[in-house]
Amino acid sequence: MISSSIDQDPIQSKANIEDSSESVFRPIRISLDPLGISVLSASDAEKLNLPNEPDFYLRLAIKYGLNKDLQGEPSSDLPKIVLNKVDAEKAWGKSPSDDFVAVHLQSELDWPVSAVCLLAEADLCAVMIRLDKSQDEYAALQKEADARDHRIIGKNQGLFSQNELAPGSWFFSKEGAIVYNGLIEMMRQQYRFRGYDEVISPNLYNLKIFKISGHYQNYSKHMFMLRDGDSGMVLKPMNCPGHYLIYKSKLRSYKDLPLRLAEFGVLHRNELSGALSGLSRCRRFQVDDCHIFCAESQIRDEIMDNLNFVKEVYALFGFEYKFFLSSKPEKYLGDDEVWEKAEGQLKQALDDFGLPWKENPGDGAFYGPKIDIVLYDAFGRAHQCATIQLDFQAAIRFNMMYKADDSEDSPIEALSKEFDGKKGKYFDFEPDEYDSQPFRWEERPLKPGFKRPVIVHRAVLGSIERFISILIEHNLGKWPFWLSPRQVIVIPVSHSFYEYAERVNQALKFNGFHSSVDLSNLRLNKKIRNAQLEQWNYMLIVGKEEAESGMVNVRLRDGSIVGMLNVDDLIDKLEQERQLFPKFRFSDQS
Predict the structure, then answer these.
(1) pLDDT given for residue 218 in this prediction
(2) Is 391 within 8 Å of 345 (Cβ atoms)?
(3) Residue 71's pLDDT is what?
(4) What is d(CA 111, CA 555) in angstroms, rounded to the nearest whole number?
(5) Alpha carbons within 13 A on the beta-carbon side of 532
(6) Which of 117, 162, 312, 498 is most buried, taking the most CB atoms under 10 A from its CB?
(7) Do 384 and 376 meet the contact criterion of CB atoms below 8 Å apart?
């Protein structure tokens, strides 16, 4: 597919497109992810806070072989993919200039730019951008971006590490696990309040389940597969099919709906080594995944609840965000009228929610339209984590149904209007390198009095690993108290008060706080400074006066002094600060 080449230096050749002594041209790479963002047109650029400048896009497209209308299809005659200096030399036949950079789009797009994606059927794309900044301004921005790099901050805080024996996967220390599990527990609190059922599904499946779901046909290059005798096996890249089997494990009634199945399952995706980037893109990760099985009449309420869910969670971290409705892609399952109806329901829910939203034509999942929520961090960078997707196809493919209320109408009962309940669609799967035997999937008719559920795929945080990387760079590693792996440190002024300091520390630990005590021989000022650099939320200074009165002298990591507090009163105060959401009381129901 990638056939054309570029003989000029990629940096110097761009300077002729738009003459400006104040502009710098640099190639930037972008990872294509099913839940990520690619810059293909002005509408895609708008999601990344890029200016809508069609003329500039078209000039770049024409000059570099991307014969593509802004809303049309890309040409098969595309420039070669560029990942780094070595790849650039292979692609262009010469070594690029010294100011060539290959950085990740979502972690570095922090200033106004114009861009065009040189699209290729690969996991990475080379993107040429024009920076509307001078060299000095670019250097300052780059310095700030480096200071926010989650890989550096995470290493300095001892949160996670990597080893070449586990490429694409990360090891989380005690402190890192506190953050990781803290995010999951926050979501669990929301699940209990919102009526979700947490489940656990297997990691290893027979390949047939992903052929039935359509993932094998659309996603096989990202799947870890192996052979077990005559059958193919796969490490699950997503939780969906497992949840379908849980749904089918018992007879369901309309009284069971909506059924909300949530899982923090471990997923594996076969990302190219060049696409891996810290916690932002891994081969092993977990997602706050949920599948909601509901009747058509319940779709709006479920979408509204999930939009509020996103709003409440993102407010905890101070994120700004935008909504985008992604409609039917080029390759899709199902009938057009079903897609139109589903898109109409999502539009209505977005309108009713009351916040601005925009359309993103052709970027829906192959099984249904979706709402993508793009959040913006403190540096103005865009990240797509949350998604809400409608699926009318999976219930047919996995023959899911529920006993219906007599008054209920079903949105769709088959893959095609021609299905008469006797002869439906079928797909034949030929033997391949993993499955020795062919097999046929065949559409099954509904039982009398039963209906098909609609499935809502939903994630709020998305990949936990990636969300942690965003939080680190958003807050510069300054964790909110409820999520902090270093909440309280007790600092005795001398050896004479080590015992009292240990007693205070034990009281904090027994109440579930992440605390420690500094028993080093350093001077007091040095201990306090180290605690600030290590991002301890609270520093408790203890000496003679504090030991005699059962008090502590409280300081914050920003240097401000709270003053003397009774230890029990401090614990009560910290307990209130740790409480994320108000406690539900019986009287609240009235």
Answers:
(1) 76
(2) no
(3) 31
(4) 37
(5) 13
(6) 117
(7) no
